[in-house]
Amino acid sequence: MKKTSEIIARVINELFGSDTSVELTRPEPQFGDFATNIALKLAKDIGKSPREIAEKISEKMQGNNDFKKIEVAGPGFINISLTDQALVELTQYKPVASNQALSYVIEYSCPNAFKELHTGHLYQTILGDVMARLIESTGASVHRTSFGGDIGLHVAKCLYGMVQNLGGELPQKLDDISKAPMERAYWISQCYVAGSQAYENEFAAKNQIELYNQTVYKIHDSNEHGTPIAEIYWTTRQWSFDYFEAFYSILHVDNMRYIPESSTAELGLSLVKDGLEKGIFKESDGAVVFEGDLQKKLHTRVFITSKGLPTYETKDIGVIFTEKQDYNFDKRLLITGNEQSEYMKVVFAAADALSPGLESAMHHVTNGTVRFGDGKKMSSRLGNVSRAIDVVNFVKDRIRDIGSQADIIDDVALGAIKFEFLRHRVGNDIAFDIEESVSIHGSSGPYLQYAHARACSILEKSKYSENPEFIMSGSLEESERSLVRKLGEYNEALDKSVNELMPHHICTYLYELAQEFNRFYEKSRIIDSDREILRIQIVIMYRDTLARGLNMLGIVAPEKM
RNA sequence: GCACCCGUAGCUCAGUGGAUUAGAGUAGCUGGCUUCGAACCAGUUGGUCGCAAGUUCGAAUCUUGCCGGGUGUACCA
């Protein structure tokens, strides 16, 4: 594709002396393999009719070995058909690792300690993992981080609930709780709910919880481990971290470094106080604020409260600089829900004021919220529907019902969940219909996994499947050509996903690819056909492309299912 | 009030740094398995791309104004 666009650019330069980059699109197959509207774009500058320009360009392109046919269509589109040989070459193209020297930080998932992961975390963890894979594919070194609260009111509420549950500040009683990370997390979350309710309803509890809030800060300040309440705090905090690890491993996403808020508050606080002296921050009603700017569409936000406590803003400043110190990132990608979009603009602007240039190195991607397509059905079957683990288990059960082989149920269930989340454009809300997501028909993870398994099964039956070289003699038949053409588009879909940080392009592509294969398969006999050698080569390319795409999405491509 | 995001077929979504005849899945209807895995394929029904104006040879896509939905708007995280 790049090669073709360069050829056209050169031709334009020779004809009209202007330097332009030529963008090619993939038109309907009947119009050719590539198309460009460059003539229409040039018409104004050159002062000739688009059609005339297109004719000249196409004339000059004739005779190139890669092109079978070049036509001018409509108002001045140039439609290009490649030779079969050139089409096959496109499938061989490998993208170059262009970001080898760059250091990336990508922060996502970000659950609070002492809480369970909900559906939003599930989505974001999957999305962030794929974003990281996409960036890794360009050769950059990627550091995955997750940032969350291990201090604050929610922790105090939880501590209160735990103490009630244990019958006092009795850390030794924690031994009676399950050893399993998921069950421990469940217990902690139950305590949080109880503590939360007590906070709302009981005056004495509210006072005690506010005391605990102070206590937790003190525990950190003095690194206190001796008191019973400190012991409960440190132990269950670790349980929380263990639970995160356990959950990420269920999802088969790479481990990330969890940066707790307690470790960034101090750094953030000192940076903001420095900034206050430099006039970056201002005092207002006893609080330290970053003043908004109507032009830049920033609103004013508090960084240090009038009581001297750091807000989330300051902790976020802390984590930015922690990551800068530890990884010296060139780019920092942050993924959060889109409700934080305005908030984060302010934090980024403040960070940039503290260290000029930082803002341009940071990029905030916001994801939509996960809604439930059929709320009624969900809640009756699942109870608490917002828990991530319930969604995972539900999908596993459904996949099991369908009758998949036991050893790949987890892979298929995860494939279903991941694909369902990833096929949507990032930023849009996701209507998660759980029944639909486990569907094995249509645009789904299991459909693609099945497609892969089927290709593997065909290859197993042919004696030519070990042949690594693509040998082409003669020309491609129509159904072969359509599939080869589609195979060549993988790299374009990947590039698009990387450049836009939009994984759904790969999803769309893989589904189209599988459909194209199924059409080919209906029409063309493979095994025992006189074109078996050629067709097997195409199936190999197909299987590999499918596997590469699925792996990029963090989905296992099974050989059997 | 102001700011940001969204509005495409009954439902779920692609397509939105302009382009040839708006596409998929799903639901409905029809046809195709003694044949390489039918978890499939083919055909069909279904759309004034929220509304209106503007820019252009050309707008789902860009601009403006409305309508509708969501979110955010200083001491919670």
Q: Can you characterise this structure?
A:
The chain has 561 residues and is α/β, with parallel strands linked by helices. Among the domains are: 81 residues, Gyrase A, domain 2; 102 residues, no CATH class; 157 residues, Isoleucyl-tRNA Synthetase, Domain 1. Helices cover 54% and strands 11% of the residues. The chain is built from 21 helices and 13 strands. The strands form four sheets. Strands 6-5-4-10-11 form a five-stranded parallel beta sheet, sandwiched between helices. It has a three-stranded antiparallel beta sheet with strand order 1-3-2. Strands 7-8-9 form a three-stranded antiparallel beta sheet. A hairpin with a 3-residue loop joins strand 2 and strand 3. Helix 10 packs across helix 11 and helix 19 runs antiparallel to helix 20. It is flat, with a radius of gyration of 29 Å. The two termini are 36 Å apart. 42% of the residues are buried. About 2% of the residues have low confidence. The chain binds one RNA strand of 77 nucleotides through helix 2, strand 8, strand 9, helix 11 and helix 12.
